[in-house]
Write a structure and sequence with these properties.
The complex is a heterodimer.
Chain A (H helix, E strand, L loop, with lengths): L21 H41 L1 H5 L15 H32 L2 H16 L2 H15 L6 H26 L2 H9 L4 H29 L3 H6 L18 H8 L5 H31 L6
Helix pairs in contact in A: 1-11, 3-6, 3-8, 3-10, 4-6, 5-6, 6-8, 7-8, 8-11, 10-11
Chain B lengths: L3 H13 L3 H15 L12 H38 L10 E2 L7 E2 L2 H32 L2 H16 L2 H26 L19 H25 L3 H9 L4 H30 L2 H6 L18 H7 L7 H34 L1
Antiparallel strand pairs in B: 1-2
Helix pairs in contact in B: 3-12, 4-7, 4-9, 5-7, 6-7, 7-9, 8-9, 9-12, 11-12
The chains are: A mainly alpha, B mainly alpha.
Chain lengths: 303, 350
């Protein structure tokens, strides 16, 4: 424009790339900062919580009695006894729950993947979703209304397991379903081509191929129901001693131990609370870890 | 999201796989026509197939029945108590069930406290989860994205009773000065007005909301993350080619694409928050007076009220009162989850 600038100095056409304006740059940087901040914010409670539990609970876990003794005959103020009875209770209840939930869940997943079409399949899918949203206390109340209120049986660990089944089923169905859908269609076709019946194809080809994924899903589901507290509050009584009978008598699990020892104002009680919390987290982590290992070392070969 | 798979996978499935009965019928027809002896072995309708089909369908049906049974049983057990209720079930703030002949209970306060807790949790968790999901899918280095996602998922592995312990013994006292300040500064606003319990120890709805928010983070994030990841690469590359900055790419492609998934995920989180039991039970202080609608109230949610009375479930009528509360909670979560699924399903159909 000015007289000092000759036509030769000017570019023939305006540059194709406009510089990014300041406000756009600012917005971009701000967004990056906010998004990263969000992630860091999520780490705060996780780290804080884990450090709290470890710092307050590790001492309880150091004694050998913690893993081998119950609280039978231990006074509330004594630094004695352990959580053996609660660990046994947690594992037993989870195991019994898995024994019921896994076959039903896997079969339902097989139905959804291999057979399900039409209205019933849609309803089933929907109901699995609804079941995964049922609060644990509602599941516990339902089992209470059915098992204790209607059939007239007493509180027992088995009732807890039944309530846990309701919470575990949707997790097992979903994960198994996903794994079955990963099994290549060619495998099924090859089997059919050899004249193998459909049920045998599913049992001998499809399920074994998906097995590691199914096992992973089951382990994760067990880890999930292990920490459920609401069912044990409603459906079983607290006991300080070991009980292997799931059909009769009180049986303590780790959440129930925590809940009961919270009412114990002594330092020993506090230590048991945090010790049990740490034990529970460790157990859940262990199941998660095994699940991760299983899935890593035997992933489905899709091609 | 889960609804997308059947529709995506099944069509090919149907064409390529012969139905067990259809298949054998076809072969059966072939044998009767041509009479080839070699094929006849396949013509039998195998009992194995029938049994297996029945078994799997039965398992599917069992889940449908389980949901129906939950509703029916809760209803059956709740109705006598509802009939014996001396007060209006929907508008009464009382929950007195000591005398079976004089039941006075209503869900007004339970509903208010439950909704307030869940809303606080959502208000905190929704933006943070959105940020985390964006960070994990768009910002984090590809190699670290997985471990980072695993760390966030660890939050879901912590049992709710441990969250409760942490909330009341560690977080509550830490939040107390902040809540006192909020109350003193914004006390004129009804949500931050003086509640019906003292702020000492911070066993308030606000604290519960914060803890619930932490519990919702992994739930909302994991679903949202998966939806964001499915954003068509063409769209992202198109936006980049037009000279959009990273944030503009996200605003114009990722967010519009993932919006319904994000909302559905938040609804799922809401369902979870509504039903959370033990964490709320441990944190929230009981209150002698009815709810004032403040975030610094104490009281009970549906779930924590039921759990708090669990040891007193002996007589049918008082127990029925709690089961009635449980039924309301069941219906609430059912509706919230159904809405969440329909939002997610509507997205998948596009």
């Amino acid at each position: 424009m000015t007289t000092t600038e000759s036509t030769l100095d000017r570019p023939a056409s305006p540059p194709a790339f406009q510089p990014v304006s300041g406000s756009r740059k600012f917005k971009n940087t701000a967004a990056t900062a906010l998004v990263t901040l969000a992630f860091l914010v999520a780490l705060v409670p996780l780290v804080w919580l884990l450090i709290t539990v470890i710092a307050r609970g590790y001492q309880a876990l150091l004694s050998a009695d913690w893993w081998t003794h119950s609280l039978k005959g231990v006074l509330p103020k004594d630094f004695e006894g352990g959580a053996y009875h609660a660990i046994i209770g947690t594992l037993l209840q989870t195991l019994v729950c898995a024994v019921i939930a896994v076959p039903v869940g896997v079969l339902a997943a097989v139905y959804l993947v291999e057979y399900g079409r039409g209205r019933l399949a849609r309803v089933t899918t929907f109901m699995v979703d609804i079941l995964s949203g049922v609060p644990s206390i509602v599941a516990a109340l339902f089992i209470f209304a059915l098992w204790i209120g209607t059939i007239g049986l007493g509180q027992s660990a088995f009732a807890v397991s039944l309530a846990l089944v309701l919470l575990m089923l949707p997790v097992v169905v979903r994960s198994t379903e996903e794994m079955l859908r990963l099994v290549p269609q060619e495998l099924r076709e090859a089997s059919y081509a050899l004249g193998v019946p459909k049920w045998k194809t599913i049992m001998r080809i499809v399920l074994p191929t998906a097995l590691s994924g199914v096992v992973t899903g089951v382990m994760l589901a067990m880890a999930r129901v292990m920490g459920e507290t609401a069912p044990v509050l409603v459906l079983v009584g607290y006991s300080k001693s070991i009980n292997f009978n799931i059909f009769d008598g009180n049986m303590t699990s780790l959440p129930l131990l925590i809940y009961n020892e919270l009412n114990n104002p002594n330092p020993a009680g506090q230590q048991r609370v945090w010790g049990a919390a740490l034990t529970l987290i460790l157990l859940i982590m262990l199941f998660n870890l095994v699940a991760a290992l299983v899935s890593r070392f035997s992933a489905i070969k899709t091609k | 999201m889960s609804d997308t798979r059947p529709t995506r996978v099944r069509p090919g499935h149907q064409e390529e796989t012969p139905d067990d009965r259809g298949g054998s019928r076809m072969i059966g027809a072939m044998t009767s026509d041509s009479g080839q002896p070699g094929v006849r072995t396949a013509a039998v309708r195998r009992p194995g197939d029938t049994i297996f089909r029945t078994l799997t369908t039965g398992a599917g049906l069992a889940i449908v029945f389980a949901i129906a049974l939950i509703g029916i049983f809760l209803l059956i057990k709740a109705v006598p108590s509802l009939l014996a209720d001396k007060e209006n079930f929907l508008t009464s703030a009382n929950f007195v069930t000591l005398d079976p002949n004089n039941l006075m209970f209503g869900i007004r306060d339970l509903l208010i406290v439950t909704v307030l807790c869940s809303l606080v949790a959502l208000v905190i968790a929704m933006p943070v989860s959105l940020g985390i999901a964006l960070f994990l899918t768009q910002y984090a280095p590809a190699r670290l994205s997985r471990p980072f996602a695993y760390i966030v998922d660890l939050l879901a592995a912590v049992p709710s009773i441990v969250y409760g312990l942490w909330g009341i013994l560690v977080l509550g006292p830490a939040l107390e000065p902040f809540e006192t300040w909020l109350n003193a500064t914004f006390g004129w606003f009804p949500l931050f007005a003086k509640g019906n319990i003292p702020l000492a120890g911070a066993g308030t709805i606000f604290t519960v909301g914060v803890v619930l928010a932490v519990m919702l983070l992994p739930i909302i994030t994991s679903v949202t993350r998966e939806v964001f990841r499915q954003t068509p690469v063409m769209q992202i590359e198109g936006a980049l080619a037009l000279g959009a900055t990273k944030w503009e790419v996200i605003r114009t492609t990722v967010l519009p694409f993932g919006r319904s998934g994000y909302i559905a995920a938040s609804m799922l989180g809401l369902g979870r928050a509504l039903g959370e039991t033990v964490a709320v039970l441990l944190i929230l202080h009981a209150s002698p007076t009815p709810s004032t609608g403040s975030l610094f109230d104490g009281g009970y949610t549906f779930a924590s009220k039921i759990a708090s009375a669990a040891s007193e479930f002996s007589q049918p009528l008082p127990t029925g009162a709690y089961i009635a509360a449980g039924l309301v909670l069941f219906v609430l979560t059912f509706v919230v989850n159904a809405v969440a699924r329909s939002i997610a399903g509507g997205k998948a159909a596009k």
